[in-house]
Design a protein that fits this description.
Blueprint lengths: L2 H24 L15 H33 L14 H33 L9 E8 L2 E5 L5 E3 L1 E5 L3 E8 L4 E4 L7 E3 L5 E6 L4 E7 L11 E7 L1 H12 L8 H11 L3 H4 L1 E2 L3 E2 L14 E2 L4 E2 L2 H9 L1 H4 L12 H12 L3
Parallel strand pairs: 1-5, 4-10
Antiparallel strand pairs: 1-2, 2-3, 5-8, 6-7, 6-9, 9-10, 11-12, 13-14
């Protein structure tokens, strides 16, 4: 490659990097919701502060190393034909002490806030007035059980500015619970209960993801955390405790019969209709914003696609294709969508 070609290559490379940086920097928070750099809880804020502290110390070390390298090459190096400068035992001893104490102090400055954050973020007992929620990880969906009996799948609702204590369990293999804007990852291990404690400080919707490879549809094991105002949370909880009213629409009424006569009742619970416990509770399915563990928006079209062929949307899913004819499928979708 000639000089002109090399210059063009480097200019194009620099331009591309600048464009990527501008694009990333210009993305709104809504456009990059999985970021860890926009903390919305006390736990996430502690982690970001620790990250900044460690980064600052790393930058100081980098500056010292680069400075020492420049001095060694351009100031203290011997020239061709020159004798090397004489060294003394005292100067060597001073250098040995410096490069021994220096890294030790740096490690202390990093390890002390790290250990403090670990203990601070994992209290032995739940904080006063904490809302304790049981989280059960399945292949490949999330179950959330509240102390008052509310049970929902793949959508976690919590009140703002109130301590939250999540008790994490696995129904099968190792998973990992992670909501980047609300806190660090926490493994979910079979036969062991791990806990995650935090206080969400900003209302909004924060997506989460399983962060431990757990099989074929690991990437499709998503969920949403809704941080509600106190009033909104009380209303949501009250709605979830209510038993759905029987459908009055003819199509939805036919759908209720289709559901009651189908294999759905073996896996899914709808209060007053079925007692299934293998899959997500569908009692208030129509009030959720997504289905298939966050893979699809909850629309009638997507519900029909999911019922028709779950494996196409989520490989490895335990739900079988029901093979319902068109009229029965439409009726079943209509019934599920009124379960608010």
């Amino acid at each position: 490659m000639n000089r002109r070609g090399a210059n063009s290559y480097w200019l194009a490379s620099i331009a591309m990097q600048v464009a990527i940086a501008v694009t990333i920097g210009g993305c709104s928070e809504k456009g990059r919701p999985m970021t860890t750099l926009a903390p919305k809880s006390d736990l996430a804020q502690w982690i970001q502060s620790l990250y900044i502290d460690v980064t600052v110390w790393d930058a100081i070390i980098l500056a010292i190393v680069v400075g020492a390298f420049i001095l060694a090459v351009f100031v203290f190096s011997s020239r061709v034909g020159e004798a090397a400068p004489a060294s003394t035992a005292s100067s060597d001893l001073g250098l040995e002490i410096a490069w021994t104490l220096g890294p030790t102090l740096v490690l202390l400055m990093i390890s002390v806030p790290t250990i403090r954050t670990i203990f601070r973020s994992q209290p032995a007992v739940a904080p006063k007035n904490a809302l304790e929620i049981k989280v059960v990880a399945h292949q490949w969906w999330w179950e959330f059980d509240y102390p008052d009996g509310v049970k929902t799948g793949n959508e976690l609702h919590i009140p703002v500015n109130r301590p939250i204590r999540l008790s994490l369990e696995s129904a099968d293999i190792i998973h990992s619970f992670w909501v980047p804007q609300l806190g660090g990852k926490r493994d979910v291990v079979p036969g062991q209960i791990n806990e995650l404690t935090f206080v969400a400080t900003v209302p909004g919707m924060y997506p989460g993801q399983c962060a431990e490879f757990c099989g074929l549809s690991h990437a499709n094991m998503r969920f949403r955390t809704f941080v509600d105002t106190p009033d909104d949370f009380v209303k949501w909880e009250s709605d979830q405790l209510a038993i759905p009213t029987p459908p009055t629409d003819q199509l939805a009424s036919e759908g209720a019969k289709v559901f009651a006569d189908s294999p759905c009742t073996t896996c899914h619970m709808i209060q007053g209709i079925s007692k299934g416990y293998i899959g997500p509770d569908l009692t208030h399915f129509g009030s959720r914003t997504t289905l298939a563990a966050g893979v699809l928006q909850n629309t009638p079209e997507n519900v029909a696609k999911w019922i028709e062929n779950p494996q196409e949307i989520k490989p490895g899913a335990n739900m079988p294709a029901l093979l319902l004819p068109g009229p029965k499928l439409n009726a079943l979708v209509a019934y599920l969508e009124i379960l608010k």
